[in-house]
Amino acid sequence: MKGFFKFGCPIIKLSIENKEIEILLDTGFNGHIMLSENIINELNLEKIGTSDYSTASGEDKITEVFKAKIKFFDEEIEIPILSTTANISLAGMELFYNCKIIIERQKDLMEIIKTI
Prior knowledge:
Elements: E1 4-6, E2 9-16, E3 19-25, E4 33-36, H1 37-43, E5 46-54, E6 60-72, E7 75-84, E8 90-91, E9 99-104, E10 109-114
C-alpha cells in the first residue's frame, strides 16, 4: 500500500464502506481508525458502544465506537471506528499490527507492507 505526504504528514487512502477516505497515519494512536462524526454520519455506520482514550495532549475523553468494513490490502475486514468532533481522520497502529511501515519524507516514500 502506497501513501503520500500532505503538508508534510503521512497520508493513506482507505476504502471504508466503499468510500475512499484520506487518513493520516498516526504512529501515536493505538486504535484502528478514528473518523470525524461528519464522516461517520455520511457513511451511516452502526454504533456498537463507547470507549475512553487519551489525546496527544494527555486529555482523557469518552467517545462513541462504530463498526465498519474496510478494504485492507486484498481483503475486506470489519474493524471498530472511534468518533471525534475534530475534522481529522486517523489510522492507528492496531490496524497495522502485521505490517511494516516505511516513512522516508526526504525520499517522498510512504509505504505499508503486509508481513503476514
